[in-house]
Design brief:
Helix content: 25-40%
Number of strands: 16
Number of helices: 22
Shape: globular
Oligomer: single chain
Structural class: alpha+beta
Radius of gyration: 31 Å
Strand order of the largest sheet: 4-5-3-2-1-6-7-8-16-15-14-9-10-11-13-12
Strand content: 15-25%
Length: about 550
């Protein structure tokens, strides 16, 4: 503010009205004071809101940028997370009746007391731990050449850390620990040299400011109660650790290989060969991250990573249209859908050859499988699955009837494929003959733009039609990116309500705690060289 505005004579010049000037001047000061109070109050409210809904300082700030692996836990996430957690927990009777944790209890104490009880360690949380323990901690691996483990703990009272950690680490007589507290964080490692290396390295550059860390954690979505990160250097470090790895084929593997696949592909059981292939893949690793968080309607784990290290998405492809799984009936109980690249069986054959060795013949693997199934593999697979396919299970499965000798052909199970009916019918005919299936079973039924094959022809006809699963509330609650997903697994708990109750007969607690569940979904998609996956559970 300039001196002119601090000068009373200049302030008087702002007041217009001659004889009324003193009155107006007083009103101006009062008005200014009110505005000042409002501004201060609004600023405080804004600060409080930002503080409540922001994530706050994280352990990555206390680790150096040479950290190659990181997993942090946040027991005091943002206000939005707290609200969502409270709403979610209240839906389950076990939260109150079994866990015994109330909404205003200290989660840290509940976890610590359980750990102390299991270990037999004589520590009082309120006296020894609570005075200095914050709500955030992380486990990390620091160093690229010779990584070592580190624990970072949020600290609320620097003066009480030493006594608390001395008592806590005294319970573990088999290991040694060293630590140092700097500001709001305590670094714990096996040696003082490692502790000093972490503290000194962080001053030069922290993990929180590392571009790779920021990029990958941003791609993993909003932070939550847990964050995990693997640096690009982690791949190279793991590759080095595989040097010299070798071994003979496991003699017990033959008992797990009834079709003779391992015999046809020595690379599968040759540990030395497997190690070399893994080394080559890890050398190209570009990083990965994950975030576990509580949303308004459930719990979700989002993961993202570099696909190049593992050959990218060799088989799956971006949907050329609506993925078939989205066109299943809206009341589908369980579904698995995939979208495949054109010529994906050729890529599968090449992958097998790369795995088994350049001199191997993939057909020596497909031969026994073809004989067992009656199909001409791998060619019939592409005919059967087309470019997009989904396996569907209908609602309210009669488990009791199946257990008591019911007819399996009554099962509401069907495979829906976007493809040519004549081609699919040819493959299905081979399967019917190989299995000795009765009339109606595995007979293709044409739909709007797809074909369905199932055990029950009536249900297959329902699946073949253009359904609305993709736009249903249950599906969207756990598969928000269904239009671009290359693979989806979906469970609708509401559609399985009768089945769940039948399975939980006599156990009211199980039924009560399963009742709030709405749906479960796992979906994956690619974006350039990045692979994304989302695991989500939603509640009603």
């Amino acid at each position: 503010m300039s001196d002119d505005f601090n000068d009373q004579s200049n302030a008087d010049q702002l007041v217009i009205g001659g004889p009324e000037a003193p009155h107006h001047r007083k009103r101006w000061w009062i008005g200014g004071g009110v505005l000042g109070v409002i501004a201060i109050g609004g600023g405080a409210a804004a600060w409080a809101a930002v503080s409540f809904f922001s994530q706050g300082d994280q352990p990555a700030q206390a680790l150096p940028d040479s950290t190659i692996g990181y997993v942090s836990v946040d027991l005091d996430p943002s206000g939005a997370q707290k609200i969502a957690a409270l709403k979610l927990a209240r839906k389950f009777p076990a939260f109150k009746d079994k866990v015994g944790l109330q909404t205003d209890d200290d989660v840290r104490k509940s976890i610590f007391d359980q750990l102390a009880e299991d270990s037999g360690c004589k520590i009082d949380f309120g006296k020894d731990i609570e005075p200095w323990l914050g709500s955030r901690l992380a486990l990390a691996a620091v160093g690229e050449d010779k990584p070592f483990p580190v624990i970072v703990i949020q600290t609320t009272d620097e003066g009480k850390v030493d006594a608390g950690l001395e008592k806590l680490t005294g319970c573990d007589t088999a290991s040694t620990y060293a630590w140092k507290t700097t500001g709001d964080w305590t670094v714990v490692a096996e040696t003082q040299a490692h502790v000093d290396e972490v503290v000194a390295g962080t001053k030069k550059g922290s993990l929180a400011d590392d571009p790779d860390f920021q990029t990958w954690t941003d791609k993993a979505g909003d932070s939550g109660i847990m964050t995990a990160y693997a640096a690009p250097a982690a791949g190279q470090t793991l590759a080095k650790g595989l040097d010299g790895a070798a071994g003979e084929a496991d003699p017990s593997a033959a008992s797990l290989d009834p079709f003779g696949v391992l015999g046809a592909c020595p690379g599968l059981s040759d540990q030395s060969s497997s190690s070399r292939r893994m080394q080559a893949q890890l050398a190209d690793f570009g990083g990965a991250a994950a975030s576990l968080r509580i949303s308004d309607d459930g719990l979700e784990l989002e993961m993202t990573g570099d696909t190049r290290a593992f050959g990218g998405s060799a088989l799956s492809g971006k949907p050329s249209g609506t993925p078939v799984i989205s066109t299943l009936p809206a009341d589908t109980a369980v579904a698995f859908g995939t979208t495949l690249q054109k010529g994906w069986t050729d890529k599968l054959t090449q992958s097998i050859q790369n795995l088994c060795g350049s001199g191997s013949d993939p057909q020596s693997i497909f031969g026994p499988l073809s004989k067992a199934s009656g199909l001409d593999l791998p060619g019939d697979l592409e005919k059967l699955f087309g470019d997009s396919a989904a396996l569907a299970l209908g609602p309210n499965l009669d488990v009791e009837g199946l257990v008591n000798g019911g007819d399996p052909s009554d099962l509401p199970v069907a495979l829906k494929v976007r493809g040519d009916k004549v081609t699919i019918d040819g493959v299905a005919a081979k399967l019917r003959q190989s299995l000795g299936a009765p009339a109606g079973v595995l007979e293709p039924v044409s739909g709007d733009d797809a074909v369905a094959v199932g055990l029950d022809k009536t249900y297959a006809g329902q699946v073949a039609k253009d359904g609305k699963l993709g736009s249903s509330d249950a599906f969207k609650s756990v598969v928000p990116a269904g239009d671009k997903a290359t693979g989806v697994f979906f469970v609708n708990f509401d559609a399985l309500d009768k089945t769940i109750k039948a399975l939980a007969t006599g156990d009211d607690d199980v039924s009560a705690n399963l009742a709030p569940l709405k749906a479960f979904g796992v979906s994956g998609w690619t974006d350039g060289d990045d692979s994304h996956s989302l695991l989500k559970i939603s509640v009603d």
